[in-house]
TrEMBL record:
Signal peptide: 1-22
Protein's organism: Paraburkholderia hiiakae
Residue ranges occupied by any BON domain in the UniProt entry: 48-118
Protein keywords: Signal
Classification lineage: Bacteria, Pseudomonadati, Pseudomonadota, Betaproteobacteria, Burkholderiales
Name of this protein: BON domain-containing protein
InterPro entries in the record: BON_dom, Lipoprotein_DolP
Length: 120
């Protein structure tokens, strides 16, 4: 994995984590969670997000049209949203990746941030 991919992966992970944390705000009729409960919930959410992203990556590996791609997958199990980021060789791979990801159980929507590889 290239440094660019790792940086992009880390940035999107932080973005998705902060969005999940913002959704856990308490209202007046629900009891506030303790720090320990919040940490446990965040850990469980992160584990579920990683598991869904792994299912999508596994589906990509089974599809031979996506073998020469560098795609990072970010998932949010609460919303069912999956974000695809990285590079593809052919424009048709963008639609193939979105179709494959959308067929994975638990995925409600797919957002593509894939870019076409430009040879130097």
């Amino acid at each position: 994995m290239t440094l660019r991919s790792k940086a992009l992966t880390a940035a999107l992970a932080v973005l998705l984590s902060s969005a999940a944390l913002a959704q856990t705000a308490t209202t007046g009729d629900t009891p506030a969670l303790t720090k320990q409960q919040m940490r446990a919930q965040m850990h469980a959410d992160r584990a579920a997000n990683h598991a869904l992203a792994k299912k999508v990556r596994d589906a990509f590996y089974k599809n031979h049209d996506l073998n020469d791609t560098d795609i990072a997958v970010f998932a949010n199990t609460r919303t069912g949203k999956v974000i695809l980021a990285g590079t593809i060789i052919d424009e048709s791979q963008d639609q193939v990746a979105q179709d494959v990801a959308s067929k994975v159980p638990g995925v409600q929507s797919v957002e593509s941030k894939l870019t076409l590889y430009a040879a130097p």
